[in-house]
Amino acid sequence: xxxxxxxxxxxxxxxxxxxxxxxxxxxxxxxxxxxxxxxxxxxxxxxxxxxxxxxxxxxxxxxxxxxxxxxxxxxxxxxxxxxxxxxxxxxxxxxxxxxxxxxxxxxxxxxxxxxxxxxxxxxxxxxxxxxxxxxxxxxxxxxxxxxxxxxxxxxxxxxxxxxxxxxxxxxxxxxxxxxxxxxxxxxxxxxxxxxxxxxxxxxxxxxxxxxxxxxxxxxxxxxxxxxxxxxxxxxxxxxxxxxxxxxxxxxxxxxxxxxxxxxxxxxxxxxxxxxxxxxxxxxxxxxxxxxxxxxxxxxxxxxxxxxxxxxxxxxxxxxxxxxxxxxxxxxxxxx
Length: 335
Known about the structure:
Layout (H helix, E strand, L loop, with lengths): L1 E5 L13 H15 L3 E5 L9 E3 L14 H14 L6 E4 L16 E5 L8 H6 L5 E4 L11 E4 L18 E5 L8 H11 L2 E5 L5 H8 L7 E3 L5 H9 L3 E4 L9 H8 L4 E4 L4 H4 L6 E4 L2 H7 L8 H11 L2 H16 L2
Parallel strand pairs: 1-2, 1-4, 2-3, 4-5, 5-6, 6-7, 8-9, 8-11, 9-10, 11-12, 12-13
Helix pairs in contact: 1-11, 4-9, 7-10
């Protein structure tokens, strides 16, 4: 079985710090190689992989502003399609654009939908509904107009996350600085609870940061920037709890799973995929607003941090994700 995996080129695969899609693609690719699958990864030229790497774009367009994203996206995606006959299955992790080639190639394509950025992109997914196989990353993120072969939850490399059974003394916000992710709400919760808050993540909305985050920074509320893989484990495992007050229907939430892998319980608004990931009272709490989130912080001590990790080992490991994708590939080839 020869699999071609198409990764985005916004960031390196795996990313240096931020790049959730690229991170998942890297974990999948490396896991497939461990399972003795013949894998070719199409990603940026500076990507790191034990699979065969093919690239046309030398570096990520988010890190090299001399690169025109649209031009190099076209070159990147056309490269894999022009070599399609070499592979048994193409695994598309690049949203809707590669779908437009699916009617021109004979190689079957599976597309993992990492979330819908806007309803405006739906016509592309609908047009190619019968030409590709769709995988959802949560049941909550499914669209009723599309057919799906399976839901496959993201997995993480548990070796990169260390269980800490002792409660930390600060709250953690880990994600993009953006209204969708609720940075402002996390700050409000920390102030209500009179607890320290550490904020980590890229500033995706600068005006939002300037208006709602920066004015609140002090000795108790600190922003430490975008935390890379090396420091992620330490920052997460020493936290008392992760605050995840999202303002949108999040398709998955890698930081939520990573937090639980370190034993750190998660308090999240009950939106999107959160009810699928968080088992209320077992590895965190689902709440309806900032007042309830602040109130529930006192109950974090009732949660076993060891149990938090065990739920991830059971449901969200890299090995489980890889195994399920291999089953998807086999099902497609036997179709």
